[in-house]
Every structure is written in structure tokens, then in C-alpha cells.
Design goal:
2 domains; globular; three-stranded antiparallel β-sheet; Nitronate monooxygenase; flavoprotein; 12 helices; binds flavin mononucleotide; 317 residues; 38% helix; nitronate monooxygenase activity
Length: 317
């Protein structure tokens, strides 16, 4: 059973946090369309902008809920990168506390004190993991839910088949579980649920939306490319992730012959941003993305496909 905050979604989907790309406009449209919208706290730059962005999100969604009592917005989530290169973490958490952010997504590190701080204001923590051992650690440290990041996910991704990952985690964890990696259709959202996940976690498909803060060429590249155009490498941040080959060629490198990186150079602030601006993160599911759309229309398409897939399987209400 999902916690109350996640029970009334129009579709069991979290629009996942995207470094540089997610912004209040995208989060607001995702939430209005009835899915969880999210963004990394680090996208607000300078740090003081986070306060303005949270004010914009909470005020706009409160007004929407007043005007649409029968179609209230979904909750939003803020992503915190729990890594030593993130020197804003304490500040950003304090701002989230002020706004009582309903969901916090933590990546890269699990910390008991951070989970306790979120619980103190009534929020829930979802932690993303790439294997079962990290899943155990996250729950031991107090995470309420897990995001299983399988092979083929955009940005930093794992190497596990989603079938293996979900099965192993579900064998012992009955809390909220989202599946991440290459989900870009309503059929795949239903498949994630059939596997044992509660929610689908979708990133790359939302890059090709009008609200996403990405260059037009990046959005078009997602429309034009498919899984053959994705390469898995640790060269750009020190952690393995999936990237669009054309962006690597544009940077003067051969995506099919990339060197290994030096893990000590891992960096998520400052210069780290440059890698993401020029080298475009992307998952393998983008063959399903045929046009740049408003985010609300993308959610509507996912919902139509999801309902049709339920109908085909005789699951329609
Ligand atoms: C360009 C890009 C940036 C990302 N930035 C973040 C981030 O800042 N924090 C995070 O937790 N996950 C980040 N991710 C991972 C996504 O939240 C999510 O796990 C992934 O996009 C899901 O796979 P999909 O892209 O195939 O849908 C990023 C992914 C992409 C493609």
C-alpha cells in the first residue's frame, strides 16, 4: 500500500530529476498533469534561487488545487545529491524544511541524519539505488522508499536487468518502489507495476518537452535517436552513465572508443555542470519519443497508452 501522499496520482509515474534541465515550469506541469514532478535542488543557481523556486511551485500548485478541486495536483519532489562535492546540501535542506517539501529524492549517498530531518517536517525520502546491497543500506538508514535504477537509464545508471533488480528488492522490501530506466511508454509503466514496482520513474522522455531547460538541438536529438545512439561511459563524471553519441561526436570524441575516467575527478558542482551541458545524458527508451511536446501532452499520451495496455490485458476498470 502506497503512503497517502502517493495514492492519488493520475498515473503511477514520477517525472525524475534532471540535472540542469528540470525547473519549476516542468515540475508544475508534471504535477498539474497528475504525476509527481521533481527537480534537483542544485538546478537553482545561485543557491538563494531555491527559495524563489519553491515559492513558485507551492503557490502555483495551491492556486491550481483551489481552482480544480476535482483534479488536484500531484505532490512534488526535490532531489538532493548526497556527495562530498555538494557543499550546498545543508543550506538546500534547510530551505526544503521551510517549505515542508513532501518528497525528497536522495542520490549517491544514504544518510540517517538527512532522513530524520525530512521526517521531522513530515516528508518522505525516496533513495535511488543500482543494486540490492545499496537498497538494504538505504532502508537501514531510514529511507521510506526506493528507486531501482536499472540498466538503460539516463544519467548515472546501473547495469542490472530491471527484472532482476525489482525481484531482488521486492523479496524483502514492501515499501514504495519505483523503477527507473528506459521507460517512455504507458505500456512500460504498466510493465513496471506487473514486475512488482509501484511507480515508473521517467527522465529522458521529459527532456523532449517544451518546458525542459535543454537546448533545442538536445531535444531534437532525443526525437531523432534510439537505443543504438546511447553509450555507457564513466568518462564524463567518474560514475558510469548513459549519454547520446551525437553529443560526444560534437565534442570531438569517438563515442565507440572512449577512455576510462579517473574516479577521483568525480564532480557534481562547478566544472561538473560543463560535462552535462555539452555531453547529453539520455536513457535507452527514447525510440518512443517522436516529437517535442508540452509536458502535459506527454503525460496524456502515457495515460492513453497505459489505459489501452490495461484494456488489452483485461485489467480495465
Ligand atoms: C540528463 C539527465 C540528468 C540527470 N540528472 C539527475 C540528477 O541530477 N539527479 C538524479 O537523481 N538523477 C538524475 N538523472 C537520472 C534520472 O533521474 C533517472 O534515473 C533516469 O533519467 C531514468 O531513466 P530514463 O532517462 O531512461 O527515463 C538524470 C538523467 C538524465 C538523462
Amino acid at each position: 500500500m502506497l503512503p497517502p501522499v502517493l495514492q492519488h496520482l493520475a498515473l503511477p509515474v514520477i517525472g525524475s530529476p534532471l540535472f540542469i534541465i528540470s525547473n519549476p515550469k516542468l515540475v508544475i506541469e508534471q504535477c498539474k498533469a497528475g504525476i509527481v514532478g521533481s527537480m534537483p535542488a542544485l538546478n537553482a543557481r545561485p543557491a538563494s534561487q531555491l527559495d524563489e523556486w519553491l515559492a513558485e511551485i507551492t503557490e502555483t500548485l495551491a492556486a491550481w488545487d483551489r481552482d480544480h478541486p476535482g483534479r488536484k495536483s500531484a505532490p512534488f519532489a526535490i532531489n538532493q545529491i548526497v556527495h562530498k562535492s555538494n557543499d550546498r546540501l545543508e543550506h538546500d535542506l534547510e530551505v526544503c524544511a521551510r517549505y515542508k517539501v513532501p518528497l525528497v529524492i536522495t542520490s549517491l549517498g544514504a544518510r540517517s541524519d538527512l532522513n530524520a530531518a525530512v521526517h521531522a517536517w513530515g516528508g518522505l525520502v525516496l533513495h535511488d539505488v543500482i543494486n540490492n546491497a545499496f537498497a538494504h543500506k538505504a532502508v537501514e538508514k531510514g529511507a521510506d522508499g526506493l528507486i531501482a535504477v536499472a540498466a538503460g537509464a539516463g544519467g548515472h545508471a546501473g547495469v542490472k536487468s530491471p527484472f532482476a533488480l525489482i525481484q531482488e528488492i521486492r523479496a524483502w522490501f514492501d515499501g514504495p518502489l519505483a523503477l527507473s530506466g528506459s521507460i517512455a511508454t504507458g505500456d512500460a509503466v504498466l510493465a513496471a507495476q506487473a514486475m512488482g514496482a509501484d511507480l515508473a520513474y521517467i527522465g529522458s522522455a521529459f527532456i523532449a518537452t517544451e518546458e525542459a531547460r535543454a537546448a533545442d538541438a538536445y531535444k531534437q536529438c532525443i526525437v531523432d535517436c534510439d537505443s543504438d545512439d546511447i553509450v555507457y561511459s564513466n568518462l564524463f563524471t567518474g560514475v558510469h552513465g548513459n549519454y547520446l553519441k551525437p553529443s560526444i561526436r560534437n565534442a570531438g570524441l569517438d563515442p565507440d572508443h572512449l577512455p576510462e575516467s579517473d574516479p577521483s575527478k568525480m564532480n557534481f558542482g562547478g566544472d561538473g555542470a560543463k560535462a552535462w551541458k555539452d555531453i547529453w545524458g539520455c536513457g535507452q527508451g527514447i525510440g518512443a519519443v517522436k516529437a517535442v511536446l508540452p509536458a502535459g501532452e506527454l503525460v496524456a499520451r502515457l495515460k492513453r497508452e497505459y489505459d489501452a495496455a490495461r484494456g488489452r490485458l483485461g485489467l480495465a476498470d
